[in-house]
User: Fold HTH asnC-type domain-containing protein from marine sediment metagenome.
Amino acid sequence: MAGTRLDPIDRKILAELQADGRMTNVELAKRVGISAPPCLRRVRTLEESGYIRGYHANVNARELGFEVQVFAMVGLASQAESDLTAFEEKCRNWPLVRECHMLNGEVDFLLKCVAPDLSSFQSFLTGQLLTTPNVESVKTSLVIRPAKDEPGVPFDVLESRLKNAP
Amino acid sequence: MAGTRLDPIDRKILAELQADGRMTNVELAKRVGISAPPCLRRVRTLEESGYIRGYHANVNARELGFEVQVFAMVGLASQAESDLTAFEEKCRNWPLVRECHMLNGEVDFLLKCVAPDLSSFQSFLTGQLLTTPNVESVKTSLVIRPAKDEPGVPFDVLESRLKNAP
DNA sequence: TCTGAAACGCATGCTCT
DNA sequence: AGAGCATGCGTTTCAGA
Assistant:
């Protein structure tokens, strides 16, 4: 299951598929230094054990007509567990909300939203988010420009840590 | 190029590959209702025109040893364009910073960071981020739990908009 | 658990519509 | 621009070390 220790080849597989999720299995096998059959078995195992959650094409949101990206910081009136999960459930059902993170500190949730334009985001904000029971405060910040957007984790950091403490 | 209008089949291809980036071309062709050769040609065109930026395996950061995820809100002393790009360049070189967004409002940048544990994040914070020239204020918030994390854009929103204004 | 061989299915170029 | 066909390559199973 997810907790099985990974060997260096497994980590290399993950790093390669994070960088190029559509790489063929023979190419992957070549890069990690084993033949194709065991490489495929490892990939399947990593998928089944949850180390790999899926594969996704990264599509150009702006070209597709989603011109704005907005972060919303949400404060709730009640932070009882049932109220927290109720809000999370709401977020899962709002398609414009792509990410919802519960945070510590002043704000309860940080939401990453996309929308075709500012007015459609505003109508989501006033018509959906602000009218949700228990939502006390919402501060929104428009993304002016994205400066870095790397998926996943830095495998080089992982490897250097494992080298220093094997 | 990126600006060419997409037809419904192209949008279906993008939606399918966003949901499963490792789908075979014949499966994709079946789902979008054309035969394999033209389907593959469309995919290549979408890749070359920038509608598809890449394919990535979604790896389980926590199981890999990245236990903490932190959002950092950064304020700069000077917002001159050269100072903004200088900070962005710094972010691109910090592996723990996975996303960097320039925002409007009180805060200048929002950073999404990952780290193996709190202490390694703290040493990044005090040793790197806070010692960067021009960084005036940093407020960090730990992610207590992720409630939603969907990649990409909601294609159903796109389709319903196109239906109402074709 | 790996490698190697072999069968099968997919990717992809060509031609025709 | 899409379909059908042909072929070379990738995927996947199986046997054996």
